[in-house]
Amino acid sequence: MGEGGVLLTPRILAPVGGYAAALEGDVRVGPRRVKLRICLLDSFPGCLPHIYLMPWNALGFIPHVREGDGYICFLDPEGVILDRARPAQVVTESLRRTIHLLEAGFGKTNQADFVDEFEAHWSRMPGATWLWSILEPETFVRSVAVVETDNAMPFVAANESALSAYWNGNTVPSPRKIRGAVYLPLEPGTLLIPPRSNGPMWSVAEAREKLLGALSEENRRLATSLIGSRKYTGAQDVIVGLPRPSGGFNLFGVRLPAADGLHPLLSSSSAGAVSPLALLRLERPFLVPRGGADNGLASKRVLLIGCGAVGGHVALELARAGVLELTLVDSDVLHPENTFRHVLGRRYWFIRKAEALKQEIQANLPYVRVRAFTDSIESVTSSGLIDIAAYDIVICALGAPTLELLLNEQLHLASRRVIFTWVDPFGIGGHALLAGNAPGGGGCFSCLYTDPGAADAGIVNRASFAVADPAKPFGRVLTGCGNLHTPYGSLDAVRTASLATRLAIDALTGKEPGNPLRSWKGDPAAYLDAGFELSKRFAASDDQLDRLRYEYRVSACPVCSVDQGRNG
Hints:
Layout: E1 8-13, E2 21-29, E3 32-40, E4 50-54, H1 87-106, H2 112-116, H3 118-123, E5 129-133, E6 142-148, E7 155-157, H4 160-166, E8 177-185, H5 204-212, H6 217-227, E9 236-243, E10 249-256, E11 275-281, H7 284-290, E12 301-305, H8 309-321, E13 325-329, H9 353-364, E14 369-373, H10 377-382, E15 393-396, H11 401-413, E16 418-423, E17 429-435, H12 490-508, E18 517-521, H13 525-529, H14 542-547, H15 561-566
C-alpha cells in the first residue's frame, strides 16, 4: 500500500504472538513519520486487525494508545459489522481511523479522552491497591468509610448503612474494621491527565495541588473543615470523583502519608510516597443500568402472589429490571416434579418456593431486599403481616381464578394496581391483565368472567384461547390425582412472565396509561391433537390483539362498573 493506502514502505513480518499474519510500515502523523505494526488473527476478516504504535511513546503520551506495547484502541468492536469479502478494505479503513486518532492525540485535540479513560489508566498503575466500591459519586465533599472484612479486598462505602443495603439489607459481615476516608468531587471540566504507568507517580505535593486545586471554593472549604478538626497518624485514603466529559464519574483513590499530625491534604510536607487506589465499582447506580435495568424502579415496592413456574421468573426478572423492594407470598413447596419448568433447581427441592426464591435472588443480586411469606395471601393479610396499600403494584400469578377473583375485588376496593397473569394449557398462549392503573377507566379481572350478553357472571375466562369443557379437563395426571398439573413448558412460563414483567415496568414507569389485556399466542398443534377446541379470540392476529387490548371491559362488571358509572 502506498500513500493512497496510508501505509508507507510496508514489510511483511513473520507471525508472532499468536497472530496469523503481521506487517509493518510507516505512516505520517502531522510532521512526524511513525511506525505501525498490523497484526491479523486467524479469524480475520471476521474481526478487526490489531494495530500497534512502535514504540508506544513515539508521539508522546496520548489517549487510546496502551503504554508498554502500543496497542491502539481505534474502534470499539461491539456491534461493528465487517465485510468479510473485502479484507483489504477492512485493513485500509482501520488504518484510516488509527491515523485520525493518532493525529488528534499528537495535536492534543482529544486530551479530554484521558478523562473518559482515567479509571482504565489508573487501574494499570504499578502497586495499585484494589478496593470494592459501593460509594455513589456525589457533588459535595464528605467523609466515607473503608471497611475491612474477611473478604480479600476492603470496601469503600458512604457508611455501614450503605454496606447493609449492598448485602440485601443484612448485617455487615463480621469481623470488620472501619477507618475513615474523605471523598473529593472534582469540578466538571477538570482535565486531569493520569500519570504514565511506567513513569513516576504523583508526588505528595502534586497530588495535593491537583486534587484541592480542582475543587469548587465551597467544596474546598468543606474539605478544610472536615479534615482539619483532629490529629492524624499513618497514611490517609482520599477517594476522588472525576466527572467524565461523556457523562458520569470516574472513581479512583490515593493513599497519602500523614505528616506533622495533619491530614496530608492540609500538611505542607512532601515526604513519603503516594499510593494509587483502584476501585472495582459495585455501586447501585453503576451496576443497575449497566445490566439494562432502570434505577427509577429502585424505590418501587412490588408484592408478588404466587411463586410457581410463572411467578418464579417474574420475581427474578423484576429484580433484574431494577425493582429492589420485593415481597413474595406462596405457601407451596418446590417438589422434584416442578423442576423442569421452574426457575429454581434441585438444590431447592422441598423448600418453600417463596423462601427459596428469596435465597436465590439475594445470593445473585446485590441491593435487592426480599421478604418471603410462606403462608397463604389470605392469612398474611388478615394477620396484618402485609399491608396491601403499601405496595406500588401487586402481581398475581396463582393460576387459581376463584381466589384471584376475590383478590380482584379486594384490590379494587383498596385502589391498588394489580396484574393477573396466567398460561393457557399446552402453551397455546399466555396473558397479563393490568387493573387499577387508570382509576375510573374500567377494566379488571372480573370483566373476563362477566358475560356481556347476560345479567349474571359466568365461569368462563373470555380472554383464554382455550375452550373449557367440564367433561374433558385440561389437567394431566402422571402418577395419581396428587400429581395433577396443567400441561405447558418452561418456555411458555418464561414468555408469560416476560409479558407480565414488562407490563409491570410500563405501569410503574408511567409508560402504560390504561388497563390493558396483553396476550401472546403459541403453537396450538399439541392442544388440537389432544382433541380440544380453540376459542374465537385465538383467531385474532397479534396486531388485532394489541389494538383491542382495552376492549375486554364490560359495563355490567360487578366490580369495576361502579367506577365507570361515576365517570359516565
